[in-house]
Write a structure and sequence with these properties.
- By secondary structure, this protein is an alpha+beta fold.
- 33% of the residues lie in helices and 24% in strands.
- It is globular and about 45 Å long.
């Protein structure tokens, strides 16, 4: 059947490797040393909310679980495209704890059968001169890419390519630049 799939142009979807999120602290060190970017302490998971009591209960449970650790409250918001963002906050030097929270959200959604609803996760960074950068994990591809928004819904493509070169040894990168989605209005990147 593999031959027919190849002939017909069908590909098997890449399985998400949520453990790849744990490479972000190393990428954060690389971004700081090579580009001067510091973590903002804000990260978020983006997903399409499902209808029904099971999803609503699971969403509330994961939010309460993360709030129970005594850290900053987890926020939930909906963007103009109808996607839900679960925003986690930690001290900027607590990247590992932030990544653990993002992993928990992703894993909980996946374990409860809502993995297909996951879009991406992102961790925010800021340079001393005020430029913002998001390191984005594409759930359905199992890869990362940098997103550098500028005012007026423009992107700093040169910075994105520079960051790609910096973190290439730290995280699996998305090779198809057409999949580097713009995350306008993403929490922590404003």
């Amino acid at each position: 059947m593999k031959f027919l799939d190849a002939l017909m142009g069908r590909t098997k979807p890449v399985k998400a490797n949520l453990d790849a999120l744990f490479a972000i602290p190393q990428a954060a060190l690389t971004l700081q040393a090579g580009g001067g970017f510091l973590p903002t302490g804000v990260g978020a998971v983006c997903y399409r909310a499902n209808e029904g009591a099971a999803f609503a209960t699971m969403q509330t449970d994961v939010q309460q679980l993360l709030d129970a650790d005594g850290g900053p409250a987890v926020e939930r918001s909906t963007d103009s495209y109808g996607f839900t963002w679960l925003v986690c906050r930690q001290e900027p030097d607590q990247v590992s704890e932030l990544v653990t929270e993002l992993h928990t959200v992703n894993r909980t959604l996946e374990d409860n059968g809502f993995g297909p609803s996951l879009l991406c996760s992102q961790v925010g960074f800021r340079s001393p001169d005020g430029r913002t950068l998001g390191l984005v994990y594409l759930y359905k591809r199992g890869t990362f890419y940098p997103f550098a928004p500028q005012p007026g819904e423009r992107r700093d493509n040169a910075l994105e390519l520079q960051v790609r070169g910096l973190v290439a040894g730290d995280v699996p990168l998305e090779s198809d630049l057409g999949r580097w989605l713009a995350l306008w209005g993403a929490p922590g990147l404003g």
